[in-house]
């Protein structure tokens, strides 16, 4: 006799995927990079975390980050503040500290409290993180580059790759590991061509950047929020009229849920066979047992371990882009060469215009004089 506690057998082809197995190769790569630095006499990168709230999810994320960093040889320092108003000063101190190579701020701090400097104080803090230390990839420099599909921060040299938002990037890496989501035989920018994705979240941390990343890879992406639906397609954003969350999900090959409330459940009957479902919320937005009764469904219940791996990966990229002793020496050498370059004869564009105009007038006068 089968007990009620026993798990139902999954439908043919349906499976739950452990994100830890996806994260491990990336963490191995980070460990190898750290070891190589240490063998060269270079200290491991330092990641500083700033925590100024009592949110359980933020505290848990801080714990995971510290544990993973220490296990992989990365130096990690958590700085806590009793008063959220002190975060900006602490953040600016970390930005200016040459010993710090990466910064992560554990949100929410102020939530959607309005800011004199922007839409919300948390948004303002995200844009205050230096692009040289932003392991989350959420500052304006990296967000704007992502939305314009710019992949390097040092155009036209193109030697320093942009950092991508780590939670959104974790979903991309998870989808890349699923055989039915990405087709790497196609050219870059078309790996997800022919795929339809629904993302139930449009935050600046997850939903919006993830929609842009998947659209940049060729997918049609429905961005679903509480009061609107947009379609990302071919680098363009279209507002959808007549679509509903249900109609979008039913036509999707991939569904990503990120609703930050325990009361939300995605109706399982919307999910079609062979769909990949990724839950990025700290709450379970789907009924796992129900969707695993749908043939061919691939379900990833948590992305936290891959997110931390991407955060470490971003830290290493920032270190090599801006903080490695060789890079610092190279940048100083380029700056010295630039300083020695002779200054142009003009100072401002109007001087060029004046010179060209004067030259043209003199040319006309000489031509007229030659005719006489």
Query: Main β-sheet, in a few words?
Result: 8 strands, mixed
Per DSSP E runs of 2 or more residues, the count of β-strands stands at 11
The radius of gyration computed from the alpha-carbon positions, rounded to a whole number of angstroms, is 25 Å
Give the helix level as a range of percent.
Answer: 40-55%
Total of helices = 12
Strand content: 5-15%
Tell me the distance between the termini: 116 Å
List low-pLDDT spans. Answer: 1-6
What kind of oligomer do you see? single chain
Content-based structural category? alpha/beta
In words, what does this structure look like?
The chain has 372 residues and is an alpha/beta fold. Helices cover 41% and strands 13% of the residues. The strands form two sheets. An eight-stranded mixed sheet has the order 1-11-10-9-5-6-7-8. It has a three-stranded parallel sheet with strand order 3-2-4, sandwiched between helices. β10 (276-279), α9 (288-291) and β11 (298-300) form a beta-alpha-beta unit. α1 runs parallel beside α10 (304-323), α6 packs across α7 and α6 (166-177) crosses α10 (304-323). The longest helix has 23 residues, at 349-371. Mean pLDDT is 88; it is low at 1-6.
Question: Summarize this, please?
Answer:
This protein has 372 residues and is of the alpha/beta class.
């Amino acid at each position: 006799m089968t007990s009620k506690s026993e798990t139902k057998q999954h439908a043919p082809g349906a499976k739950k995927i452990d994100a830890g197995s996806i994260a491990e190769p990336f963490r191995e790569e980070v460990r190898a990079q750290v070891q190589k630095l240490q063998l060269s006499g270079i200290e491991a990168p330092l990641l500083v975390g700033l925590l100024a709230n009592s949110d359980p999810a933020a505290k848990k994320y801080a714990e995971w980050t510290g544990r993973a960093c220490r296990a992989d040889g990365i130096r990690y320092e958590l700085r806590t503040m009793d008063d959220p108003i002190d975060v900006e000063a602490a953040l600016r101190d970390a930005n200016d500290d040459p010993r710090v190579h990466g910064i992560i701020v554990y949100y929410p701090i102020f939530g959607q409290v309005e800011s004199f400097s922007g839409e919300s104080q948390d948004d303002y803090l995200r844009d205050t993180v230096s692009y040289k230390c932003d392991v989350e990839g959420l500052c304006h420099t990296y967000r704007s580059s992502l939305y314009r599909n710019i992949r390097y921060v040092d155009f036209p040299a193109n030697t320093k790759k942009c950092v991508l938002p780590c939670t959104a990037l974790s979903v991309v890496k998870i989808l890349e590991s699923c055989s039915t989501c990405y087709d790497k035989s196609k050219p870059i920018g078309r790996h997800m061509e022919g795929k339809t994705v629904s993302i139930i979240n449009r935050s600046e941390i997850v939903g919006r950047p993830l929609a842009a990343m998947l659209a940049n890879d060729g997918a049609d992406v429905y961005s679903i929020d509480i009061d609107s639906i947009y379609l990302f397609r071919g680098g363009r954003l279209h507002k959808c009229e007549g679509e509903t969350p249900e109609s979008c999900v039913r036509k999707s090959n991939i569904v990503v849920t990120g609703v930050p409330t325990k009361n939300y459940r995605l109706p399982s009957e919307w999910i079609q066979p062979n769909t990949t479902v990724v839950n990025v919320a700290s709450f379970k937005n789907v009924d796992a047992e129900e969707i695993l009764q749908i043939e061919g469904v691939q379900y990833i219940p948590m992305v936290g371990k891959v997110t931390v791996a991407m955060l470490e990966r971003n830290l290493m990229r920032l270190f090599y882009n801006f903080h490695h002793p060789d890079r610092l020496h190279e940048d100083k050498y380029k700056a010295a060469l630039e300083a020695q370059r002779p200054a142009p004869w003009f100072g401002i564009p109007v001087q060029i215009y004046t010179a060209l105009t004067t030259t043209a007038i003199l040319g006309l006068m000489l031509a007229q004089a030659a005719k006489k």
